[in-house]
Structure formats: C-alpha cells, structure tokens
C-alpha cells in the first residue's frame, strides 16, 4: 500500500487512546476551579477580617441600676473610629418577660476618644434590666 493514511488506518507512531476518542477528561479537571475558589475566598476572608476588625462605632455596657424600677439608670461607653462625628444610640429597658418597657434615643455629640455616658430610662412598667440596642453614626 501507499504511505498515505486512509480512514481507519494509523501510523505506527500514533497510539490509539480511548480517552481522546470518547472525550474523557483528566482526573484533575477540578484543580483550576479549586485554586480560583481558594484565591478569591482567601482574598475575601482577609478583607472581611481587616474591615471588621475595627468597626465604625462600638458600644459596651458597663452597668445598669434599677433601684427605681420606673427610672432605670444605665452606664455605657461608646467608641468611634472618627470621633468628630455625632453618634446616636438607642437604649432600652426590659421587664421580666423581656418586653421593652422603656426606650430612649441618646444623641452623643462629637468628642475625642471613647465616651462614657450615664442615662436614665423612664419606663411604663417595672424594668429588671437595661441595655444598648444599637448605635450608629449620624
């Protein structure tokens, strides 16, 4: 016969491979996907850790005094990343069933550093505890 390859013929140098014929992929096809997921996930994890390590505003309850259950006194601190901004905190007093019986909005003027506040919360029923619900910058 001639040296030309006809359909169905192969050179001796060509090796028949069922994987090529039937489109079977390599067993490591998942590696590029896993690497891209790991890189993107790692970058997001670093960003989230750095971004939330020091929040814009944070609060911490020091104590509350309910010697007069209709006027609960609460002492708390507030720390801002930028102390030149005005902060607003919502403070609430609760009864034995954890129902809010008194709530006030405390406006904290711009100051330097961490601020400690003492506030009275008038309530419509006897309060047993008090706490800072949330704080945000105005």
Report on this model:
- It is a single chain.
- It is built from two helices and six strands.
- The protein has helices spanning 18-22, 31-53, and strands at residues 57-65, 71-80, 87-94, 100-108, 115-122, 129-137.
- The strands form two sheets. The chain has a three-stranded antiparallel β-sheet, with no helix packed on it. It has a three-stranded antiparallel β-sheet with strand order 4-3-6, with no helix packed on it.
- The longest helix has 23 residues, at 31-53.
- It starts with 17 loop residues before the first helix and ends with a strand.
- Keywords: Membrane, Transmembrane, Transmembrane helix.
- InterPro entries: DUF4307.
- The chain crosses the membrane at residues 30-50.
CATH topology of the domain at 57-137: Immunoglobulin-like
Q: How is the main sheet built?
A: 3 strands, antiparallel
Fraction of residues in helix: 10-25%
Described by the principal axes of the CA atoms, the overall outline is: elongated
**Spans of at least 5 consecutive residues with low confidence:** none
Multimeric state: single chain
Pfam families: DUF4307
Keywords: Membrane, Transmembrane, Transmembrane helix
Transmembrane segments: 30-50
InterPro entries: DUF4307
């Amino acid at each position: 016969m001639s040296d030309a390859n006809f359909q169905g013929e192969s050179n001796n140098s060509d090796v028949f491979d069922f994987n090529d014929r039937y489109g079977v992929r390599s067993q490591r096809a998942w590696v590029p996907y896993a690497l891209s997921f790991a890189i993107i996930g790692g970058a997001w994890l670093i960003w989230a850790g750095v971004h939330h390590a020091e929040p814009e505003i944070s609060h911490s309850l020091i104590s509350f005094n309910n010697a007069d259950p209709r006027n609960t006194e609460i002492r708390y601190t507030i720390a801002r990343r930028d102390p030149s901004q005005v902060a607003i905190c919502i403070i609430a007093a609760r009864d034995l069933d954890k129902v809010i019986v008194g709530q006030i909005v405390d406006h904290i003027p711009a100051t330097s550093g961490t601020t400690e506040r003492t506030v009275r919360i008038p309530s419509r029923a006897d309060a047993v505890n008090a706490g800072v619900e949330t704080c945000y910058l105005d």
